[in-house]
């Protein structure tokens, strides 16, 4: 596993630390749970379950890095970052609500919400792993500063 340091000359590869490798494995283990949460057949409950999976993931990730977990801070950061990918977050809500339409709506949401849940969990994990690796906490993560990295990782996860 290779991580990256951003330098003025571009991106410089560096070997991932043991803890970072463990964090990446943890992130990958939560992605299927977030995808599965997208299959909850009740409109909007699916999004609440995805958020719950992501909160549990961040709690475990913060424990790995010995960072005090703040559920309120985590919820606030998740909401701010999801808002940065507005078309995807709007699509998530629309596809969730489509579950109320028999057959067609459920089929459309069945094909999209799991992917969006997994992609948002991946992007969230990449942001927090990078932040915690640099010594950050929930209190000093500025969603505005990591928004473009989150968007980049979200798009990468959808490929």
UniProtKB/TrEMBL annotation:
Transmembrane region(s): 33-55, 76-98, 104-124
Species: Chromobacterium subtsugae
Membrane topology category: Multi-pass membrane protein
Stretch forming the signal peptide: none
Domain of life: Bacteria
Keyword hit for tRNA-binding: no
Matching InterPro entries: DUF697 (IPR021147)
Keywords: Membrane, Transmembrane, Transmembrane helix
Keyword DNA damage: no
Protein name (database record): DUF697 domain-containing protein
Intracellular or extracellular location(s): Membrane
């Amino acid at each position: 596993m290779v991580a990256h340091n951003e330098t003025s000359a571009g991106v410089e590869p560096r070997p991932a630390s043991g803890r970072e490798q463990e964090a990446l494995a943890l992130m990958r283990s939560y992605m299927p749970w977030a995808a599965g949460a997208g299959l909850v057949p009740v409109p909007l409950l699916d999004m609440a379950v995805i958020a719950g999976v992501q909160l549990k993931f961040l709690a475990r990730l913060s424990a790995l890095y010995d960072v005090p977990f703040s559920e309120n801070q985590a919820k606030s950061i998740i909401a701010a970052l999801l808002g940065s990918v507005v078309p995807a977050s709007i699509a998530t809500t629309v596809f969730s609500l489509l579950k109320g339409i028999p057959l067609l709506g459920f089929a459309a949401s069945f094909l999209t919400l799991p992917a969006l849940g997994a992609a948002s969990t991946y992007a969230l994990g990449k942001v927090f792993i990078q932040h915690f690796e640099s010594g950050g906490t929930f209190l000093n993560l500025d969603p505005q500063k990591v928004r473009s990295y989150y968007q980049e990782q979200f798009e990468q996860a959808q490929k």
